[in-house]
Specification:
With 298 residues, the chain is of the alpha+beta class. The chain is built from seven helices and eleven strands. It has a single domain, classed as SET domain (Beta-clip-like), CATH 2.170.270. The strands form four sheets. The protein has a three-stranded antiparallel beta sheet with strand order 3-11-8. Strands 4-7-6 form a three-stranded antiparallel beta sheet, with no helix packed on it.
Amino acid sequence: MAWYRYLRSLLRITPTNEQLLGALLQLPPPAAKEELNRRATAAVLAEVARAKVDNITRARPPVEVRRSQVRSDSAGSGLFLRSDAHAAKPGDLIAIYAGVYTPPAPDVTHAADGTSILIPLPALREEGAYVINLQGGGWICGAESALQAKNNTAKGLCAGWAVAALANHPPRGSIPNVEAIAVDWDDAISDAVRKHINPITTLPWYIDDGVSVFVPQTVRSRGIVFLASRTINPGDEILFNYRLNPHGNLPRWYAAVPDEISWSVVDDAGLAGKKERKSQKDRWWDKDHGDWGGGLLN
């Protein structure tokens, strides 16, 4: 409905993680989350195996790192679907966003004597580059992982699965071809994730009256994966909507992407679902009644 689209655009409402995931995988939320965990776990295990061999060329991921085609002062390296890979369809896992995970700080009650609670902000580099916020709180800083991927590429090695931080923002006139989806890592691979993909920060979580409090080891790590939001052809550059704060000091190269681009993923999936349900009802009717109804009308 047009009025609903206008309202969500006016209020800057964006699709939830669950809405996007269900739409991209064409599954109800519980099944979509289970399928995402299965795919993400397979990618993590492939990355761990890749990192253990001297010649990092096995189990090649669908993407590679090379010079970006985005014309911008900040765009150096870029992420591309391999030229010898199959075209990626909506819902395909493209890459993992590796980096140090900082979970959202817990609700802390200020002491009655007025002692202060300080929550450190992420140490931003290059105007905040490589820091991605998660829905529900917390963030991932992928600066070190991005640098490692660049170094591997410079050595002629496969950069691996954990290279999502190198995806660039679409230039003016272009739209993203991936969506960032949060994933809750399973306990079964938690050690591998903490070591190779999303280690938990060792910096102070928050500061209570001058005393630094660190993240407990019992806190589970979370991550981000990029799923294709539309067909990506071999050789295409991976473009990701940075969603920078519109009230901040935006760089000159940044062109805001309308939220309706992400909503179109959800809306199109809803329309496709309605058509499929109608088609199923038609098939059921034909199966139960044959050509009886059509014969009467003729």
